[in-house]
């Protein structure tokens, strides 16, 4: 079940002991659309820039056990910078998103990463390039940013759904692993799984 909670308060903090996954990236890279796609599994080409913070509560199962997840979504705009502290607070994993059609959004990941690491130095991160439906050639490129920081990279599309479930399922798994204290092995495992699926799609 999914429930959306909007908060304009910078003091909002995570409820109970749920897992918290945050998304980061420039405005209009598709953070909200990816979340909508994962949670509701549909896509409407409308554009509402996120205001303040949206929190989507989601219940799922991992290894047969129910897990409560909070996905936190915010606007990738300078004017919301003052909200970031509570946004990062208590997060267990971060999805860093850029836009396949706008190179600047990739360059700006460095800035987002620095901000994140100031507050959450150790949480696992996953990187995703969205809108591959509009720029398929990007799937042939390699990217130094995720490599440099040991992040798995996902080629995704909120518009047609490519890899969206995989990205969020892995984010939940890795967030849970972080909470249980065994992140490093888990990231390695995800990297290996991605490598295998890449070989399968190219062969
Ligand atoms: N072609 C294509 N367009 C997309 C995709 N994902 C999002 N968009 C479009 O990109 C625009 C921005 O999407 P949003 O999800 O609102 O972006 P955001 O990152 O949440 O933006 P802020 O809330 O301002 O930070 C919308 O017009 C979407 O329809 C995609 O996978 N493919
Ligand atoms: Mg948004």
Q: How would you sum up this structure in a few lines?
A:
Helix content is 36%, strand content 24%.
List the helices and strands and how they pair.
Layout: E1 2-7, E2 19-24, H1 31-40, E3 53-62, E4 65-74, H2 84-88, E5 93-99, H3 103-107, H4 109-119, E6 125-130, H5 144-148, E7 153-155, H6 164-180, H7 183-202
Parallel strand pairs: 2-4, 2-5, 5-6, 6-7
Antiparallel strand pairs: 1-3, 3-4
The structure holds guanosine-5'-triphosphate and magnesium ion.
Guanosine-5'-triphosphate is lined by residues 27-33, 45, 47, 49-50, 75-76, 130-131, 133-134, 157-159.
Question: How is this structure best described in words?
Answer:
It is a single chain. Helix content is 36%, strand content 24%. Helix 6 (164-180) runs antiparallel to helix 7 (183-202). The N and C termini lie far apart (38 Å). Mean pLDDT is 85; it is low at 6-11. With 203 residues, the protein is an alpha/beta fold. It has a single domain (2-202), classed as Rossmann fold, CATH 3.40.50. It has helices spanning 31-40, 84-88, 103-107, 109-119, 144-148, 164-180, 183-202, and strands at residues 2-7, 19-24, 53-62, 65-74, 93-99, 125-130, 153-155. A seven-stranded mixed sheet has the order 1-3-4-2-5-6-7, sandwiched between helices. Bound molecules: guanosine-5'-triphosphate and magnesium ion. It holds the Pfam family Ras.
Beta-strand residue fraction: 15-25%
CATH homologous superfamily, by name? P-loop containing nucleotide triphosphate hydrolases
Q: Give a quick account of the main beta sheet: strands, pairing sense, barrel closure.
A: 7 strands, mixed
Helix and strand content put the structural class at alpha/beta
Number of domains: 1
Which strand order do you get reading across the main beta sheet? 1-3-4-2-5-6-7
Order of secondary-structure elements: EEHEEHEHHEHEHH
Number of helices: 7
Bound molecules: guanosine-5'-triphosphate, magnesium ion
Give the overall silhouette: globular
Poorly predicted parts: 6-11
CATH class: Alpha Beta
Helix content: 25-40%
Radius of gyration: 16 Å
The tally of beta strands, per DSSP, is 7
Average per-residue pLDDT, rounded, comes to 85
End-to-end C-alpha gap: 38 Å
Stated plainly, the CATH topology is called: Rossmann fold
- The CATH architecture would be 3-Layer(aba) Sandwich
